[in-house]
Automatic annotation (TrEMBL):
Membrane topology: Single-pass membrane protein
Localization (cell): Cell inner membrane
Matches recorded under InterPro entries: MORN_2, TonB-dependent_transducer, TonB/TolA_C, TonB_C
UniProt-recorded name of the protein: TonB C-terminal domain-containing protein
Family the entry assigns: Belongs to the TonB family.
Length: 291
């Protein structure tokens, strides 16, 4: 038997906590704690709640509210059977909704009611200008996308309104860029979005899982092959939380995959604009039995 680690699928958690409510085909309500991602069973323990509106059999909108009723996010999704090859990976990782991909507007608001961010998706891919604002309504950043790739200007401002970053991209590659301190002085350029990194690199994480995963005897007897996908959050301190299954195989394999991933070392945390952020990962583990 052998284990083959597929490529990892990282993504900034903040990009997937999207979430509204108008009369529609049907609605479902779910409650969350202060993380906006951990479900709680009752309203009295919740800080947020989401309402899923199913407009029809193929399209839905998810709205997220504070427990007091202030809308903080609204996101549109489109159901797919087999998404376009170009968008399959992005749709899978960034929608966080099984069988659905982002399609249409994704909008967030600060809890004071001011607009926080706007972006548009088509068949799972971000396209056009993504914008974000500070809580007082001043612009924070603007970045241009084409088919999920950065294309054109990427501008960031300090809260004072002074430039913090000016950059230009082509096919997701940096062409030219500068960063500035609050006084307008040039500083060393740094990446705006930085993914978490495992000590020694992602291959070390794959190696660890491969060496420590114990193929369940029940799966061996049944001749089970396939891919189990484990999701987890890399916290701001590099620890892992919310370890679970995003693509299931069998109960025994799922449990063993979770056990193994929980044994990974602390990661170097991800960052956004130089500040640590929580990042959600999906790690596929491909299992192949050989004679």
């Amino acid at each position: 038997m052998k284990l083959i680690m597929d490529r990892y699928i990282p993504f900034i958690l903040a990009l997937i906590v999207a979430l509204s409510a108008k009369p529609g085909f049907s609605q479902d309500t779910t409650y969350y704690d202060s993380t906006k991602s951990n479900k709680v069973l009752s309203r009295d323990k919740a800080k947020y709640y989401e309402i899923v509106e199913h407009q029809d059999a193929s399209r839905k909108t998810i709205n997220l509210y504070t427990i007091e009723g202030t809308k903080v996010a609204e996101t549109s999704y489109l159901k797919f059977n087999t998404p376009p090859a170009s968008s399959m990976n992005f749709a899978k990782s960034h929608s966080n909704q099984k069988g659905y991909m982002l399609d249409g507007a994704k909008t967030e608001w600060h809890e004071n009611g001011n607009l926080k961010s706007e972006e548009i998706y088509a068949n799972g891919l971000i396209t056009g200008v993504k914008k974000q604002w500070y809580g007082d309504g001043k612009p924070y950043y603007e970045v241009n996308f084409k088919d999920d790739l950065m294309e054109g200007d990427f501008l960031v401002w300090w809260e004072s309104g002074k430039p913090k970053r000016t950059a230009k991209y082509a096919d997701n590659e940096l062409v030219a860029g500068e960063c500035f301190d609050e006084k307008g002085n040039p500083v060393d350029y740094y990446e705006f979005w930085v993914q978490p990194d495992y000590p020694g690199g992602i291959n070390e994480a794959r190696k660890f899982v491969g060496q420590n995963f114990n193929y369940p005897s029940s799966a061996i007897r049944s001749g089970v092959n396939g891919t189990v996908e484990v999701k987890f959050v890399v916290e701001k301190d590099g620890s892992l939380s919310e370890v679970g299954i995003s693509k299931s195989m069998t109960e025994d394999i799922d449990k063993e995959a979770i056990r193994t991933v929980k044994k990974l070392k602390k990661w170097k945390p991800g960052a956004m604009d130089g500040k640590p952020v929580r990042v959600l990962y999906a790690l596929p583990i491909r299992l192949v039995l050989s004679n």
